[in-house]
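WARN retry 2 of 3 for item q-0093 after timeout on previous attempt; input resubmitted unchanged.
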Amino acid sequence: MAMSAKERKLSRLGSGKGANGGGSFGARGGHRPPPAGTRRRVFAAFFVFLCAGAVVFGGVHAIGASFRPVLMTAWPSATLNALSSERRAQQAGGDGAGTILPSVQIRHAVALPDHVLFILRDGSLLPASGEFECLYSVSNSTQLRRPPLSVAALPDGPSVVHCPVGPSEVAVSLSLAQSPPMTPLQWDQLVYTALLDTRDNSTIVFAKGMNLRPGRLGVPSRYECVFGRDLSKPKFVVTSPVISAAQETFRCVTPVRVRRYLRMTAGRNNNRNSDGKPMLVSIRTKGRGSSTLPSIAEPEPLPRYTRHRRTRHWQQKAHSMCVCTMLRNQARFLREWIIYHSHIGVQRWFIYDNNSDDGIEQVLNTMDPSEYNVTRYLWPWMKSQEAGFAHCALRARESCEWVGFIDIDEFLHFPGNQTLQDVLRNYSSRPRVGELRTACHSFGPSGQTTIPKKGVTTGYTCRLAAPERHKSIVRPDALNPSLINVVHHFHLKEGMKYANVGQGVMLINHYKYQVWEVFKDKFSGRVATYVADWQDEENVGSRDRAPGLGTKPVEPEDWPSRFCEVYDTGLKDFVHREFTDPRTGNLPW
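OK item q-0093 returned
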């Protein structure tokens, strides 16, 4: 018998399965699921909606996305699993000591000539160097382990780890690292740091690898700055013109989009987006065969300071006199140098630490911060003193009227009746004077064979008759925007000039040729970019070397009596008069 349409519909509904797989539609008050075709259409529409959402929300992070290159590891998964298990065991006290060791995240790895440098993310708590190891992946099944050379950390900056040189072109890591192993970048082809100058909305970029000539301006139109969270992807970077190029320093316009992004992320863990990845800046050559230097440089805003009163000729800042120096393993001389210069009127010190491992932080910790305003910066970049001095001049600009660029073995001396403040006050009233040049007298071993127990200022009293070169005290606001310097002096803005200060007013005692135990350390390398190391067979007759010494660290028999032409006890007498404790006869250092 034929069924009506209504009967056929009721028949189909009645045959629907319930939630338990059986029974009629009305047995449990349930309903029949939609046909298969309808389900497929609904699922397809939902899938399209999800994809569209991913595209829209992913695009929001174009300029805000991570600016750090993704480094792929060649380590096998078994090795990574072993590292992960080892780290979990250490953190759980599995080493038997019951100590929970902190984990660290590696931000960058850089291969230098004599070690591998790890820069850790801010907030990584680093244990003592004996509690973790440096790891090197030699092959798919071989892993080298070596103890670190040293560790360093600052309260307001990242921690760094120095590891021994490993096999070339292998991935490296630390045994406590949460980050995957990475292949180190090469130090001599690298953008290594950058500063943001809000005065003119420019970015100052410090880079190795462009090989510009010393003391000369380069052609800025040959380069451009590149800002991005992944510099390898042209669609996700912003470029800007270079304003000046000189030595290792490039100044470029800071793009509006970059300035806006940095303002948005200013309170978010130093230039980092929600994914924890930073913005980077690099230098790109223009024209055919253009290339972009690898970069670890995260643009850092220059500090702002509140200035004080304005006088007729000049605007007073927080400090009238500051000093900037770069050093490596000079901790034993640091107290004398700081205490002496504090006494004569220096108010602020910027110390750029070039990979010291002799306990400099312990020495600085012994100095009362209420008396000595000292800031130590980790500056691990080799052969970069000129760039470091340019960096320091920028950091000191807002708080220092004058900045002296002298070494740890150089002491300002005033043989006449004037003081440091007298000299600065005299030249501060001359607004066109941007640099004071003072002669350097080089002292020899003065018959000493061991390090003088009471310090260099009283231990060395015999010097060469004629001064060697000069050093400078500069007004940071007067420096040329290119920041060109050749260690001894800076280039000045147009219209500014330098003044030579007479030797009867101010000079520098340079304790250059000390006892052999100290002097031989110069053979381990020099920090200046364009000066040959002592052991290099290059420019052997240069005044930057010790006359007649050659390139080998072999002590001449007559070393204690060399470089002695004039006995000069002027500074020694001043030190004994001003610093000697009348009860004990001791000096404060």
